[in-house]
Amino acid sequence: MPRLGFEPKIPIFSFSPEALLVQFSPETRSLPFSFKRPKNPLSFRMSQTPTPFWLTDVKYLEEKRAIALEFSQLNNRRMSRLPFFPSFYASQRELAFEALKETISGEKKRFKLEQEGTAFKVSASTFSDLQSLANAVFNETGFRPIVLEPERQFLLERNWSFFDCFTPASEKTFEKSSSFSLPEAKLGLFSEPLYETLEQLLLTNPKIAQKTAESIVLSQLLLIKLSQVPENAFLQQEMLLESIFWKSGINLGKISPSGETGLEKPSQFKGRGFSEVDFSGLWPVLLTKPIYNLGFDSLNCDCCTPQNHLGKNVLPNSLVIVEMQKDGFFFESALPSFSQRFHESSPEKGSRLRRKEEFCLKTIPLGPFFRNQCVEIPLFDALKLQSQGDAVLAKPTKLFWFCQKQESLLSKQIVSLNKKISFLESELEEMGKEAMKQHKILGSSMLAASPDFLFQKTRLKALSRLLSSIPSQLSNPKSAFFSMPFGSAIESIEASVLESFQSFAASRKCRVFTTEKNKALLRSEKPYSLIKQFSEKEKVPALITASSR
């Protein structure tokens, strides 16, 4: 794979657009429903191949060493019980087998230790025992494994979730259906079946209807009970990452704060004649194979170690030594986290703060530097300074790279989420077309009153939000999943795209002002055409969007 955008004025990526079209295209299958006019003229219900039961409750029974399952219909419930032994994982790159075995053996608990992929799997007789083993590992080695609730572990292992559809295979066993729809069941929170409850709320209180649908969707996506769904978006994102990385055996260096929102401040820049360009849909795709293939299991792999900073898989946050060519020189790094660390550890803090205020810079600049002075800075910054004649790259000091052979777990999950989003977009479009075909001018009203349409639209919105937030969560120092090499790699990748977009716009006499991490303001008479041309030129997936202000 060619070099990924470290040199100025070259394409950021050189991968096949056709490969991405295949990777992120929606699933091709016909919709299992058609619209029918019901008795109520203000709404409609989708008829579909009946799937008689929905998974409405999962409960861990520690004394029984089992999971109790509840499958529900409108007026019928069936219970099932399956044996279950909870587990946690430890990466082989973090711990040695003998050291792990010796540590957990000292706890005098029943356990099973086995190798699974690139991690060691530790299973215990009960969840209490598992927590004791995890605490012992942390106290002895400093490794803090991801210990999920037993119910969530069970669902992850079986690829199930709350409100999935099931068909009975026997009196006590069920098989998961491939479809997903609004559950036709009674939930403990409501006196009426869920569909009728949402239908009435859409007529009387649409905001409550939306909130109810969102809670059900998040329960399904995060594999947690309705009562456990947090309102805090930061915590929702942490739960998603827990599910993604559980089996990878990564080390949680810290526990994330429960009250942190993780939300960006809205832009204070106001202006007419600008279009707001949103890059948030693009960032997750850049982390996938065949692009950067980032993941805790693919970062600095043993099989693809580069020879030097010119390697095709070298990340732009790698550190190199440069020799400065000017006296009293300052520059603004593309990596805010590096700028902050440099400022806190280097003298002349007052000079940098005055420079930031005088020139209205977004971040604290690096400097002051003097001619022939050697400094360690990120590779992305070094190549830019070298192209401008401000510095000369001398040698690398700390390289970071990604695996070119094995796709990371994070990449696989992002691809999977993208496919679900693509399918939902197609499904909602077909629902709109069918509503207009059957109900003519009343089509929009029928959609607005449909619980099914609300449910699928809410699911699409939640999926899109969770997916687009993955990069910012992983580069947020307040996240339990933050690591400096990983977070700065994401920062540098995003910076390379933003800088290339600014240069591309300037070459066409357009101006770009970056306002937030994911957004920029563009002054152009044809913003959509400019974005399309940029995507084609740099071979960036066409996921950048724009809206007029």
Plain-language structure description:
It is a single chain. With 549 residues, the chain is an alpha+beta fold. The protein has a domain at 319-398. It is 39% helix and 18% strand. The chain contains 17 helices and 19 strands. It has helices spanning 17-24, 97-105, 127-141, 150-158, 194-204, 206-222, 233-245, 283-286, 336-345, 349-358, 379-388, 409-439, 443-448, 451-468, 470-474, 484-507, 527-538, and strands at residues 33-36, 45-48, 53-61, 66-72, 77-83, 87-91, 111-116, 119-124, 165-168, 174-176, 275-278, 319-324, 329-331, 366-369, 374-378, 391-398, 511-514, 519-523, 545-548. The strands form six sheets. A five-stranded antiparallel β-sheet has the order 5-4-3-9-10. Strands 17-18-11-19 form a four-stranded antiparallel β-sheet, with helices on one face. Strands 6-8-7 form a three-stranded antiparallel β-sheet. β1 (33-36) and β2 form a beta hairpin. α5 (194-204) packs antiparallel against α6 (206-222) and α12 (409-439) packs antiparallel against α14. It is globular and about 80 Å long. The two termini are 39 Å apart. The model is unreliable at 1-48 and 261-269 (pLDDT under 50).
